What does this fold into?
Amino acid sequence: MVRFALCQIGAMSQFFNIHSENPQNRLVVQVADCLKQGGVVVYPTDACYAIGCSLDNKRGMDRVRRIRQLKEDHEFTLLCRDLSDLGLYARVPNPVYRALKQGTPGPYTFILEASKLVPKRLVQPKRKTIGLRVPDHQIIRAILEAFGAPLVSTTLSMPGDEYPLNDPFDIKTVLEQEVEIIVDGGYGGLDPTTVVDFTGATPEILRRGCGDPTLFGF
It folds into this structure.
């Protein structure tokens, strides 16, 4: 039995109002099934609204690049369910793992050496790194759990805009012809994640965002 008939690739967006603290399982499952079918979805996170697709959905990534007018070398982030997922897609030495526990879940993106499970098109070509994070937002956590794998994700910042889109109805106006599902989880934030690079001898803050860098000794 096909449960994701609502997800019609190329059709007008579905607009799902999902409760930010108690996500409705019926809607969460429909979002996850749409992602499995190859859909592109907009969803709230603990930082900003984001747009993404499944890890193996190259066509979806190309659509996201077109929507946001991104260059081919844009570095996407993998949204993971938990630290165990993160450990599958990156090489995480024990001291780094202990540090990551301080900021997961949370509004942080960690730059780590990519594992062989990460498709080459997602890996930073020179450094062989990938950005990963475990968000602290009930809606996207529920979607990730129902989906069962990481999502390829990027902040929903439109070309020429100073800030990311944060009003679900503005998002609908701009993208209702471009994505399969828009998840309305209320107003989103305007500050991106704090980015921490763990590939060197000591951690380095690459971007200060809404995550508190003092968790990592800065």
